Amino acid sequence: MKPDTRIVHAGRHPERFDGAVSTPVYRCSTILSDSVADLKARNKAKFDAVSYGRTGTPITMDLEAAVAELEGGARAIATSSGLAAIAGALTALLSAGDHLLVTDSAYFPTRRFCDTVLTRFGVEVEYYDPLIGGDIARLIRPNTRVVFTEAPGSLTFEMQDIPAIAEAAHAAGALVVNDNTWATPLLFRSFEKGVDLSLHAGTKYIVGHSDAMLGLIVCRTAELFERVKTCVGTFGYSLSGDDAFLALRGLRTLSVRLARHQDSALDIARWLQNHTDVARVMFPALPEDPGHAVWKRDFLGCSGLMGVELRPAPVAAMEAMLDALELFGLGYSWGGFESLAIPTSGSIQRTATPWSAAGPTIRLHIGLEDVDDLKADLERGFAAFRAAAA
């Protein structure tokens, strides 16, 4: 089946639920067994039977099955947030004395978890240039267990050569974990590019409506699934039936929503490139972007998230611009139907490589509104920017 068909039918079993098109919500903790033998059988089946609410119900299992099928992994694990997926995956794969390599452009909460939790537990964390490619081999040590990637990079949108990184990592016996939230399972085929664990903040595009928190860990092999699922369960990470329902509902329209996000984002990105108040647009789908060649080679499309560097001006001018916006909401997260904007000046952290911008920076998520209306809203913001910068 083609992706647009698979996304409609994956993880659906109407025959199990009296013909219901969508898996019903299961709100439960206790699962009753018919006998002691049945109780023991459920426990023995571990991850393949419903035995307790925290370990999974039919709706969370259908969500996991659908996402794993879409991305081409063996199995998936649903968690309560994207950060829970990151924390659960890394904790499952690392022990005291291990060495972890993390892209210098990683999502800040990933960085904070590595620096404040993993290091406290004896894991050595080292950050690397996101553009290092196959040269990462020179940083890999005998105790390097995991290389963490994210493409494009958070806030600054560098493209990583994940196939080259994966080749070097696997040659040394290390695993590759990739944060695939920006591209979703539809736009980057993680396991075809050498990734071992693909992580998603399903809060974003998979849920798609800014009304549920969700994380997903998709595992390349059944062995990795069992290892990670055991750790995630031990920590008590779980997903409610209501949030799983919202995620499955959002998943069914992911492909059509992404197509609109892509078209609108490309239109606005090109418009911003030619705007006198913009110094740079950070968006790998643009031919002028430094990472465009890698994006075009490895990705099947783009989503609606981008970075923008404004022309040199006081930070107060950027803040005036954002305050003047009416359609772009000022709020964290992204991937929903609505357009969002946040300031990123002062939020971009680097320890392995320098990064600087002459002007203030912002991040935009292009939602599903009319593009001309969004441009008019941004122009309203730019007028406030110019007035404050004068």
Automatic annotation (TrEMBL):
PTM-bearing positions, type N6-(pyridoxal phosphate)lysine: 204
Recorded metabolic or biological pathway in which this protein acts: Amino-acid biosynthesis; L-methionine biosynthesis via de novo pathway; L-homocysteine from L-cystathionine: step 1/1
Pfam families with a match to the protein in the record: Cys_Met_Meta_PP
Cofactor requirements of the protein: pyridoxal 5'-phosphate
This protein's record includes keyword Lyase: yes
Stated name of the protein: Cystathionine beta-lyase
Chain segments annotated as transmembrane: none
Catalysed transformations (reactions): an S-substituted L-cysteine + H2O = a thiol + pyruvate + NH4(+); L,L-cystathionine + H2O = L-homocysteine + pyruvate + NH4(+)
